[in-house]
Fold:
Amino acid sequence: MPRIFIKTYGCQMNVRDSEQVALDLTRRGHELIEHEEGADVVLLNTCSVRDMAEQKAIGKMRTLEGRKKRRHHQVIGFLGCMAQSRGASLVEELPAVDLVLGTQKFHEVGRRVDELLEARNGGEPWAPIVDVAEEVGSQNTIRDHLLAPRQVTAFVSIMQGCNMRCTFCIVPSTRGAERSRPIDEIVEEVRSLVRQGVREVTLLGQIVNLYGRHEFPARDGRSPFAQLLHAVSAVPGLDRLRFTSPHPIGFRDDLVACFRELPNLCPHVHMPLQSGSDRILKAMHRAYTGAQYRRLIEKLRAARAGMAFTTDIIVGFPGETEDDFRATCDLVREVAFDNAFIFRYSPRRDTPAATLPDQLSEEVKMERNQVLLGVLDELAAQRNRDLVGTQTDILVEGESRTNDARFQGRTPGNHLVLVEANERWRGQLLPVQLVESTGFTYYAEPVLR
Structure:
C-alpha cells in the first residue's frame, strides 16, 4: 500500500483542497501518513499570495530532491497556486519533481499519482507530468470530505476564482475567473456533513459574498449568496454557520440582514481592509473608501449585537506615506478589530503593483508592521477587559494544538477558548465563563445551567 504525505501551505481553501486530494487517494487504496519520512509520495499544496510562501515550498522541495538521490523511486510533486502560476518552470528549476498540477486539477491528483507509481513499480522511466490547464466545472469537484472521528467543524467550498483584479494580488491568475456551485449541491453537502456529526460549517470562496453573481439570479430581493445562507442555515442540526472571506463591496443590505434573520449565522465577519488610506485603496483597486468601510461596520453592528470583526491589512504598499499608514492605524483603532492578519507588501509577478514606483524598503515595512501589531495589542487588552468574566458558548472541537491538558473551542465571535480536557464535552456546545486571557486566547470554566 503506497504511503502518501501531503503538506499544505496557505489559506483555508488550500486546506479544503488537500482534504479532497487525501480522500481521493485513500479511496484508491493509499495510506496517508503524518510525516514525510518513509513516504512513497510527497505532495506540496502550495500558496502564491506572498513570496515567502513560495520560497518555503521551494526550499522544502529542494530538501526532498536531496533525499530522492537516496530514494530515487519516491514521487514528489507540487499542487495548487504556485504550481498554477509557475507550471513547467518548476520542473526546469527542480528536475527531480515528478508532478505539477494546478488549481483546477485537484480531482486529477489520484489518477496522476497512480500513473507515476505504476511506472515506478514497473521499473519504467517516467517523464514529469505538468497540467495547469483550465477545466470547465472544476469548481464542482471539491465536494467530498475526509472527516476525523467526532469532527464537528468543516469547510465547504462554494466557488472558485476571482474577478476583482486588486493590483497587489496574484489570485486571479492562480485561481482563474469566478465560478460557483449550485445552491442545491452545496446544501446537500452540508446535510451530509451534519448527518456525520458536523455541527458547524464555514463556506469558502476567494470573495465568498460575490457567490453566484454570474450564474444565478437575485430572488425576492436577495443576492445568490444571501439565498445560499438562508438555504444552508435551514439544514436541521446545523448549529453554526460561518463564511470567509468577503469583500466590502459585496456586502449589500440583504447580506447585512442575514445577521438579523439567521440565528445560527455566527456574529463574526472577517472583512479585509488592506489599508485605511483612500489614496492607497484607490491604488490597490479596492473600490471603497475608509468612510464606506466604517459605515458598513456600523450597519453590521446595528444588525446584530456582539459582532466581532477580524481583517487583513497590507503595510508598505508602494507609495504608502507616513500619513497613509497613520490613516490605517486610526481606522484600525476606530473599528477596534478583534484581530488582524498583517502582511508586509510582497511584489508578485505579473501584478500591476509590482511595477509601481516608490517601492518601500523592507526596513520601513517591518517598522510599520511592528507599530500596527502594537495597536492590535492595545485593542486586545481592552477587549480582554470587556470579555473576561462574561459567559458564552463554545463548540468544543477537541485537543488544543498547544496544550495536551486542554480542549479548544470557539465562541460565536470566533475567539479561541481553552477548557479542561474532558471527553464529555468533545463535540458539544458548552456554556463557559471566560476567566483569563493571554492576548488572543481565552481560558474558561464550564458553567452549569
